[in-house]
Amino acid sequence: MTTLYVLDIPENHDIAAVADKDPSVVVDHVGPYFRIVSDDDIVIDRRATGCRHAVWYSSVAGLHESRITQWDKDAMRVVGA
């Protein structure tokens, strides 16, 4: 299971919304965080989120048994460990 946590603040809402469009991804809440979970890789297109680089590169609050294999100006890819 691939799990990404993003703080639930207005700047990060579009990240969660774009992730939630993927039918293999489930987005819910744990405390003040969006929990983004999938049995597959989680791939989020930065341009689709509309995030500026400063928000994009500060959006990850945590991972659970997962690792980031791509986090650049184009996309973020999180894979299960």
List the helices and strands and how they pair.
Layout: E1 2-7, H1 13-20, E2 25-30, E3 33-38, E4 42-45, H2 46-49, H3 53-56, E5 60-64, E6 66-71, E7 75-80
Antiparallel strand pairs: 1-3, 1-5, 2-3, 4-7, 6-7
Please characterize this protein's 3D structure.
By secondary structure, the chain is of the alpha+beta class. The protein is built from three helices and seven strands. The protein has helices at 13-20, 46-49, 53-56, and strands spanning 2-7, 25-30, 33-38, 42-45, 60-64, 66-71, 75-80. The strands form two sheets. Strands 2-3-1-5 form a four-stranded antiparallel β-sheet, covered by helices on one side. A three-stranded antiparallel β-sheet has the order 4-7-6. It is globular, with a radius of gyration of 11 Å. 27% of the residues are buried.
Distinctive features:
81 residues; 7 strands; alpha+beta
Q: What spatial form do the alpha-carbon principal axes imply?
A: globular
Query: What does the radius of gyration come to?
Result: 11 Å
Instruction: Specify the number of helices.
Output: 3
Q: Give, in spatial order, the strands making up the sheet with the most strands.
A: 2-3-1-5
Task: Indicate the percent of residues in helices.
Answer: 10-25%
What structural class should be given to the helix and strand makeup? Answer: alpha+beta
Catalogue the unreliable spans.
Answer: none
